[in-house]
Structure formats: C-alpha cells, structure tokens
Amino acid sequence: MTNNKKIPVVTSPLRDSIIAMPACIKEASGIIIYGKRIKSIVYSLDVSLIANTNADAILCVYPFTPNTQILNAVSLVAKAPILVGVGGGLTSGDRSARLASHAEENNAGGIVLNGPVDIETTKAVRTYVDIPLIYTVIDKSRPLAPYIEAGVDIFNVSGGKDTVELVKWVREQYPDVPIIASGGKTEENILDTIAAGANAITYTAYGMMEQYFHKKMEIYRSDSE
C-alpha cells in the first residue's frame, strides 16, 4: 500500500489569493481548543484580510473601548476562531464580563484580557464564560499565580523586543500552561519565540494588504502591456 504524503490542494481562480502566515510558524506545537489545533494567529481588524487568510485564528483586540459591533463585523467574515479582547484597563468589572458573554454567544473561540486587568475582573469574566480565558503578559511586574487561580487558561505574551525572554520567564514557572506569543517580523524572531516555549504565534498583519495589493497591480499592469 502506497502512503502518499503529498497534501492535495483544491482551489479556484477566484479564491486562490490568500494572505498566508509565515511557514515557519508550523514549527510550533499549537494549542488544541475544542478539537481545533491553533498555531498561527493573525492580528488584524481588516475584514478583507480576515476573510482571505490561512491563519488558524484571529486576534480581535484594539486600543479602543471594546465594542460589540466590531466583533459582529469580524464574525461575519472570519473563517477561523476569534480571540476577542474585552478590556481589562479602563474597561473592567461587570462591563468586561458582559462583553465576554456577548462574545461567547457570538461564537468567540476565547476571551483576551489586557495586561492591567485586576483579579476581580478576571474572576467576573470567568463566571460569565465557559470558553478559554487568555491573560496578556506584558512584563514581569505582576505575579502570574493569582491569574491562574482566577481561572486563566492561556497566557498571551506581548513584550515587544523582550518577548522571547518573557516567554522563557512564563514557561519556567508553568511548563504545561499554553502560551501564545507575538512572533515579531522575521523568521528568526518567530523561531526564537517558539524555541523559548510559545505554543502558538501571533503575527501582526500591518501592511500585508497593501503589499499584496501592490503586487496585484503590478500583475495587472504587466498583463495590459
């Protein structure tokens, strides 16, 4: 019996324009959430990109007050689970909990809490939802144990240039807790983050649509000459 390991690809001329995540993210172990393995997570609120990416999940967080209409817009086009931010800084307490409940009812795959979130808000959100609770680690200033005790399931490490060291810091304390981490812009950064202990990588999509659009326009111009 022949075991053909080549993966068949089925597409069409109108649907083969996909914004692909860096291939090296496949080196990550992934996190299995309700039966689906998630390795690549695109960070974008561009609905046209979200509708045309091969990312395993969508990170729906932004620097404004959480708004259910934004989630509704993303939900309309996303083909992958959405990890939804519900505040934790200015937005907190019962408001964050209600937003989390709305997100769960609209098929969110997880709830993301900002770095400044207090323990009481974390507990309130946990009582409202049954989907994974994700706490964002931005530095080493806060002990992690109280967040685990409050019901956090996954750590989301977002430390800028210090992300790799921050992932190591988290992994040393919690060998078995899933870690999502921002991978940076280069393959080397992504692989270093995975080696440090990240199970899934968040890839920021800033500028990807513009780059793709420019390439498409070059093709159109060449065809018209």
UniProtKB/TrEMBL annotation:
It comes from Streptococcus panodentis. Keywords: Hydrolase. The keyword Hydrolase applies. This is Hydrolase. InterPro entries: Aldolase_TIM. GO terms for molecular function: hydrolase activity.
